[in-house]
What does this fold into?
Amino acid sequence: MSLTRPRPTPPPTAAEHAPPPARRWFVPLLLRIHFFAGILVGPFILVAAVSGALYVITPQLERVVYAHELSAPVPDRTIPLGDQVRVAEEYIGDEAALAAVRPAPAPGDTTRVMFAQDGLGPSQTRAVFVDPGTGEIRGDLTVYGTSGALPLRTWVSDLHRNLNLGEPGRLYSELAASWLGVVVLVGLGLWISRLRTARVKRDLVRPRRGATGYRRLFGWHTSLGVWLVLGALFLSASGITWSTYGGANVSALRSALSWQAPSLETTVGGDAGGADPHADHGVVSAPTAAVSPDAFDEVLAVAQTENVNVGLIEIRPPASAGQAWVVQEIQRSFPTEVDAVAIDGDTLAVVDRVDFAEHPFMAKLARWAIDIHMGSMFGVVNQIVLFVVASGIAVMVVLGYAMWIRRRPTRDPSRRAGSAPAEALPQAPLWGIALVVAVAIGIGFLLPLLGATLAAFVVGDAVVQAVRARRASRPARTFDGGADGDVV
It folds into this structure.
């Protein structure tokens, strides 16, 4: 038996305690991006989330606010569509030109006879609501887009899209949609990093019981974030498709990869010559010649023998000579029905037809993404999910600001909020810096507004850090305090 005492285990060195090299700079970098993006872009995300949650419930609000215009007594029989058009034209007179008709989709609904008129905005028409049973005029409102949004929903939609400021205001929504994805992805990276080192991992998927103060706010912020991550990323990605600069790049990419929906040929007796199917987007055309109201019944009967088999449809007369009538399904709920047929008004021959089933898969995916984003794909269920996700995002933004304020130093009453996380890039290796720069450049090409603001953040942060470093390196100033030689 050996009487030699075992040597004590030496304490771990600082190198053994140090985190992995990547964690020394990458995780702090994520934290700094998450912090600055949340603080600076948080107001945009908050407005987008609140207005989006409000938009989701506008279809129900419309049914209440515009009940007289949208509904009518269920009739025993309906009058011909042509007679309903005549009633609306007599009501309008020469103030506007007939642009489209949406027959009553179900018993108890009204028919919309839509007119193009000077002074209306892009994609707007003046709709006259007609009782299909009696021909009574039930209302006269401005409607917007394929969704047929009435003034209330249009106002909320514009608030969500551009703060009701027109085209310049769309920059706000592009910032919100772009940075929302960045904040969520960076937050997810931080959550994964904490999950790997947390002793009680369940505290990262639900708020810690008994926590108070900053830890309570952090628990709710983290828990909400991980449960909403998929919904938030979806809203960010689909919202970018409507943006000014990023949306244009997405459209160009879809066109280059032939991911666009096929266009309907409307030229009678000739070829459209490869016209851009999106060239008239946002413009409501009116016929240049008189259109017989009776033709609406005839054209609709032909379309119903082809591929039009739902109640939600729109009939558009030819905008000029040599053009066909268009009958388009506009049902955006599941199953998607957006089939279309072009019909020669003189011969009632079918010029062309496009079925949604024949769309490329990526075009279908884009259609579904838009409809889900607007809350129309799966009805009330879709609306509830979107409302919860949008409301959760708004709460997360508020919690983020509350955490920032809560972290203010208690010993310094002049400080109103906590300080920013420490700078990380100076500790990064060259390959890490190169990777960050490459990612930023790639983002800038696809999403120019996000790339520009990201570059502004980085440059501004670098300038601030350089100024602070220069001030810290200056020697302290001294002066002769007087005859006694005290230095102050």
In short: Residues 272-283, 478-488 have pLDDT under 50 and may be disordered.
